[in-house]
Design brief:
alpha/beta, 4-stranded antiparallel sheet, 15 strands, elongated, ABC_transporter_ATP-binding
């Protein structure tokens, strides 16, 4: 499968020596939705700007559709669509006027009505930008990104400000674009969005990609959990030795990478000993748990460690 986005040892250093992107590598094949996630300040926006060709990397290489998006911008720009976090359009123009103005700068632009219908703004063409809601402005941003029928689409927080219905409509549109062969790279703070849309994803932290793969692969890297409450008089020490349990009073949590085996062992023990496990809850890890585990890390002298360890050692 042909990769349409490729980055190798990509770096971006700002004045003062701050390295926002610290040697990341990624590849996105044609027709895939790839989500780039990360904590605030992780380097997502800096990375996407390099991929879009809005800035030159401080080190490493980047190719989009086989070209350097910064140095060969004329070859790349007509074939990509970019949805920024904020469009910044003239407030007194109408929606349709804004689309027509943008179409004048876009090769092979869709008709205005088609572009607006695609994002649910077909009936809002005569409304001035300043009268749009925040969600409607995001829809307009998306319409303009799609105007040139892009082969590669960059979406930066595409559903911020949208209501639940608008978010679902946008998801459906992104899936349809992918099914039609468009490659989509998106950033989002909504983990449910990444889990629902992304074929693959990467989580950034402090300028590096620390975890990547399909959503299932990323969540599988985290342990599943089993939670329950023991009856009065039953000590956690009576649990089978094969189960690594943490207890707080009568409340017990077991974390395991073998959920079925651990749950089976626990239930057999409960049956054989006549113990009733109150509030029993067993579930696989979620993308949110993987994200929060990464967010808890920090760096000390170039080494990534758990933040709680650092705080304990500095008190």
């Amino acid at each position: 499968m042909t990769n349409v986005i490729e980055a190798e040892d990509l770096r971006r250093t700002y004045s003062g020596g701050f390295e926002a992107v610290n040697g990341i590598s990624l590849a996105v094949p044609r027709g895939e939705v790839f989500a780039l996630l990360g904590t605030n300040g992780a380097g997502k926006t800096s990375t996407v700007e390099l991929l879009e060709g809005l800035a030159a990397p401080s080190g490493g290489t980047v190719r989009v559709l086989g070209h350097d998006p910064y140095r060969e911008r004329a070859a790349v720009r007509p074939r990509i669509g970019v949805m920024l976090q904020e469009g910044g359009f003239p407030s007194d123009l109408t929606v349709a006027e804004t689309v027509r103005m943008w179409a004048g700068c876009t090769s092979g632009a869709r008709p205005t009505g088609e572009a607006l219908e695609a994002v649910g703004l077909g009936a809002r063409g005569g409304v001035r930008i300043k009268q749009l809601s925040g969600g409607e402005r995001r829809r307009l941003d998306l319409a303009l990104a799609l105007l040139g029928r892009p082969e590669v689409l960059f979406l930066d927080e595409p559903t911020t400000g949208l209501d639940a219905e608008g978010r679902r409509d946008t998801w459906a549109l992104v899936r349809a674009l992918r099914d039609g062969g468009t490659t989509v790279l998106l950033t989002t703070h909504y983990l449910e969005e990444a889990e629902s849309l992304a074929d693959r994803l990467a989580i950034m932290h402090q300028g590096r990609i620390v975890l990547s793969g399909t959503p299932a692969e990323v969540t599988a890297a985290q342990p599943a959990r089993i939670r329950f409450v023991l009856p009065e008089g039953v000590a956690p020490g009576r649990l089978p030795l094969g189960l690594k349990a943490a207890a707080e009073g009568r409340r017990v949590e077991i974390r395991t990478h073998e959920l079925q085996d651990a749950l089976g062992e626990l239930l057999l023990w409960a049956r054989d000993t006549g113990v009733r496990l109150e509030g029993l809850d067993a579930r696989s890890a979620s993308l949110e748990e993987a994200f929060l585990e990464i967010a808890s890390r920090t760096t000390v002298d170039g080494t990534t460690v758990d933040r709680t360890t650092v705080e304990a050692g500095t008190r």
